[in-house]
Amino acid sequence: MPGYSTRILTIPVAGRDYRIRALSDLQQFADPTGRAQRAGIHSSLWSLFGQVWPAGRVLAETMSSVDVAGKRILELGCGLGLASLVLAKRGADVVASDHHPLAESFLAYNAGLNDLPAIHYRDLPWELPDTTLGRFDLIIGSDVLYERGHALQIASMMERHARPRAELLLTDPGRGNVGAFSRAMAAQGYAVDEAYGLFDDEGDAPGRGRLLRYTREALPALAG
């Protein structure tokens, strides 16, 4: 037994049903080798990756129609991988990333549930530079600004991994860290457009959930 229980969810996205293996509830926890502890994942946060949250649904819906032709795409904090699965179903060149010790295995399982080939996965702690990852045309994430320090970490990720005309799409349920992040992105030349009214269930932040789209004009070519 793995030490935790799971369930299979059916998630409709843009008229197509996706089957997702998720943790049974927020009480699940198993870290027999201490890998989560070494990654800095507290037991109270361990199970959060294993659910499909409203922000993840909105991001997946957005990925069902975004232009993917010729683009290299990176998902930050992929969790169970719903948005990356939607992109893979469309034939996109996507890399899913997370730092939870079970994210890779759940992503692989969910790809199989949906008759998709394995999705390229990277263990990607945001605070540590990865010189082998390269650069992307589109970077996405759902509810990734949940701690104050994440604003600077993800802005730094954009500096390291965004191509000159890269776009960033984030869904945020209203954590309160968007302002600091948008200022950090403005320092890199990005402007932001915000769309509201996309969340069916916004939990403790009704009316504050939004889709954030960061874009910038062309910059001199960067290596990678």
TrEMBL record:
<keyword id="KW-0808">Transferase</keyword>
<dbReference type="Pfam" id="PF10294">
    <property type="entry name" value="Methyltransf_16"/>
</dbReference>
<dbReference type="GO" id="GO:0008168">
    <property type="term" value="F:methyltransferase activity"/>
</dbReference>
<protein>
    <submittedName>
        <fullName>Methyltransferase</fullName>
    </submittedName>
</protein>
<dbReference type="InterPro" id="IPR029063">
    <property type="entry name" value="SAM-dependent_MTases_sf"/>
</dbReference>
<keyword id="KW-0489">Methyltransferase</keyword>
<dbReference type="InterPro" id="IPR019410">
    <property type="entry name" value="Methyltransf_16"/>
</dbReference>
<dbReference type="GO" id="GO:0032259">
    <property type="term" value="P:methylation"/>
</dbReference>
